[in-house]
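User: Structure tokens for this complex, please. No commentary.
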Amino acid sequence: MERWRTYGFVAGFLAVPIVLYTVFVISPYVQAFQISLTDWNGIAARPAYVGLDNFGRLLGDEVFWRALRNHGILLLVLPIATIVIALFFAFVLNLGGGARGPGMAGVRGSGFYRVVFFFPQVLAVAVVGVLFKAVYRPDESGVINGALIRLGMEPVGWLIEPDLALWSIIAVMVWQAVGFYVVLFSAGMAAIPKDYFEAAALDGAGRVRLFFSITLPLLRDTVQVGWVYLGIAAFDGFALIQVLAGEKGEPDGATTVLPIEIWKNAFSYSKVGYASAMGVALFFLTVTFAVLTLRTTRRERIDL
Amino acid sequence: MTPDSLRSVRQARSSRSLPADRPRPGVLNGLSHAALAVWALLIVAPLLWTFLASFKSNTEIFGDALQLPGELRLDAWGRAWGKAHVGRYLLNTAVVVAVSTFGTMLFGSMAAYVLARYRFPGSRVIYYYFTAGMAFPVFLALGPLFFVVKRVGLLYTHTGVILVYIAYSLPFTVFFLAAFFRTLPESVAEAARIDGASHTRTFFQIMLPMARAGLVSITIFNVLGQWNQYLLPLVLLARDQEDWVITQGIANISTLAGYEADWPGLFAAVCMAVLPVLVVYVVFQRQIQSGLGAGALK
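Assistant:
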């Protein structure tokens, strides 16, 4: 009796969340896989089943490969740049002040910097896009070029040079992401017992040594989590690229990524089947990345 | 001890803590302070520039970027609020986010609670069913989602967007809150049970208040995440401009600024979109950062 009452309670609490989640999250994902095997245009009542044709076409699509190349660059540069910068700041903010009083402390002003660094994280990507459109303007009215001209240098076409545009966009992503990882790594560093640092400092280890010999090895798990998050972010980038570079990934598709192509195919060209095939490709890329990262970097945990 | 030997001891000590082959802390300190200051400047500068640009004229905006506005013009703020409907967009966003965050927290904490603290057949499966949602790229679902919402008759409505926001926030919310509920002591729940409180009552009157710290952090995350959501409304609220949320409005004003040549209006609109977020952030930054740290490490 009591058991059944408990089950009734459990079912009652789970019913609404499961229904909402199944209808709006899981069912679209499942449908995406089905649709990717059809030539559906979003209107036809009975779309024709075309097997793996969409995927065959994908492999011959130059734009698809360009998007993949851009994801490759993002996947390498975004995590490395963000993690290196964030680790440096997290270390300085938490332990950079050296042994002060009992245990280690951050440099002066740590609290202030932490608040400022994290702020871009709470800004909407659409807003960030508008901000950096102004920052990157190609003439003296751009914030960077205005400063460059003051210093007697030539203005740079940050978003209009095909070779430069993607890098300018990655810089914005790093700008926005660093604060989050500073906080993440700070939490990781706070979990390292203070005696480790004190013992090492007594043995004459400097701050550089403290970082590489103690902080980094003990922070491995946290860095790995960060790496996976950033890698998954590298497979997106839609909103920022759409606002900064337009729907085609200007200049001339140089900055395009899969989400941009999915959007274009599904909602501008009505090629829902083909767009879904791209979505499925994106899904397998993301999952492969996450599994590979977690597998290859797994190691014995260090127990504190 | 002679003064000489004292000095040598002192030297030995100082050379022990400061070997010559390492940069002196002064240099290192200076460098780290410079790096911190530069990064802070990189973050503040675009925001400050945008704020100042909202008081500039078009000519000033297209002139030297490092010039201050010639006079304090407030008309762009008025235009952005009225003509560009920023007021309307902010109101829409506030209503949508208030309802959807409440729904997310209610349903998310209910699901997380039973998954974390009750043993029943299939509980692991359901837990993974929810958290798997964090791994899927939203883009995969986007096309079909449009048609799902259309079929249930909620396309281009705030109700539709609210339900979709709740559904897409559940994986994250369930994951973090389940971790949180697991840390709460069993003894209190048991005491309540012995006193004859029903499961539902135990949850709402005892467990929820105990989980307040976790609930506050996750609520703020959901508020910010849903306030900044761009992709879902772009698909689900595409039709009527009256129903748009703030991110759609900003992206649209940004496109229009090129045609209508109202750049100060655009920057005033951006400021209006940022200010509420800034206030929430400054008030709650402690909870945001501690919640994030605690949650992400579980």
